[in-house]
Specification:
This protein has 52 residues and is α+β, with helices and mostly antiparallel strands. Helices cover 23% and strands 19% of the residues. It has one domain. It is built from 1 helix and 4 strands. The strands form 2 sheets. A two-stranded antiparallel sheet has the order 1-4. A two-stranded antiparallel sheet has the order 2-3. The radius of gyration is 12 Å and the shape is elongated.
Length: 52
C-alpha cells in the first residue's frame, strides 16, 4: 500500500533544488499511526543542494 507522501517526496527530490546522494534505506510515514496529522517523514540518507 502506497501513500501520497511517497509521490510528494519524489517530487521534492526530482523537481526541487535538492538531490539525495545516499540511498534511502527507509522512509517512516507516521501517517500510518495517525491519519489526522501531517507529521514529518524521516529519511535515511543525505540531502544536498543541487549545483546549477
Amino acid at each position: 500500500m502506497q501513500f501520497k507522501e511517497d509521490k510528494i517526496f519524489e517530487k521534492i527530490i526530482k523537481n526541487g533544488k535538492y538531490i539525495l546522494i545516499y540511498p534511502v534505506l527507509s522512509v517512516f510515514l507516521y501517517k500510518k499511526r495517525n491519519f489526522e496529522k501531517n507529521l514529518p517523514i524521516n529519511l535515511v540518507g543525505t540531502i544536498v543542494k543541487k549545483k546549477f
